[in-house]
Design a protein that fits this description.
Distance between the termini: 9 Å
Helix content: 40-55%
Largest sheet: 8 strands, mixed
Radius of gyration: 25 Å
Strand order of the largest sheet: 7-5-6-4-1-2-3-8
Oligomer: single chain
Shape: elongated
Amino acid sequence: MNPIELSVIVPVYNEEQGLHALFDRLYPALDKLGVSYEVVFINDGSRDRSAAILREQFQKRPDVTRVVLFNGNFGQHMAIMAGFEHCRGQRIVTLDADLQNPPEDIGKLLAKMDEGHDYIGSIRRMRQDSWWRGVASRAMNRLRERITRIKMTDQGCMLRAYSRDIIDAINSCQEGNTFIPALAYTFAQSPAEVVVGHEERAVGESKYSLYSLIRLNFDLMTGFSVVPLQIFSFTGIIVSLLSAFFVVFLLIRRMIVGPEAEGLFTLFAIAFFLIGITLFGIGLLGEYIGRIYQQVRHRPRYLVQAILEKSE
């Protein structure tokens, strides 16, 4: 049996309307590469006909198609993790099913790997997202880079290529919540980036809400750095020192000027500010404790209902 050179992992969640268009572009693009490949679709508990369409595609191209069916919705990153654990290629490419990243650009990532790189990220050229997605993405990128020291120009683009060594390292991790591109970056010896195309979503709608993006970045920052906790500790020290100086100031003022009724609302404002900092710190601490709680339960990250693949 010849080894598979390329595995393309495609998570699918309620993509019924766009799957046929994906098939029409993905398979010809891979055929042109002239390498042995497999396409691993992971159905992440879709509630539409996505699973049935994937089954039909498997029956059409069983030699290069595999389908992993979840019995529920476990999220995009868990779907990709399942793809990592079931793929067999020496090089692995992740691709969204919405065709916003053209499958024809997979060759660019492989060509960059031929230069000796083991992990290839991508930068979307002329992004077609809504304006708020662009602003939020740039802000999160800057915040993430400052906190984690992980330099990814475009963390939201899922079109990425990984060597088998990096995939094996990722599979050895048992984290319940993680951010795969950042995790791969920490294992990579020679990461690189390439510019890829970006198109408007033709059908359907984005599965990431604003809350989902914020939740994802919380996982990124708390999963790869303790800097947020350190910042809060330093903030507590500074506020404590300022509070001490303020108490001394009020004591001296009382001795010189005497008791005053003025300044009551100023004290209220200061008290509310300190309460706000305290609540923020408790929430931040809760994020880390929540990650520990989820990890120590040792629940399965996902449950596979069935795997469609050609028997050897």
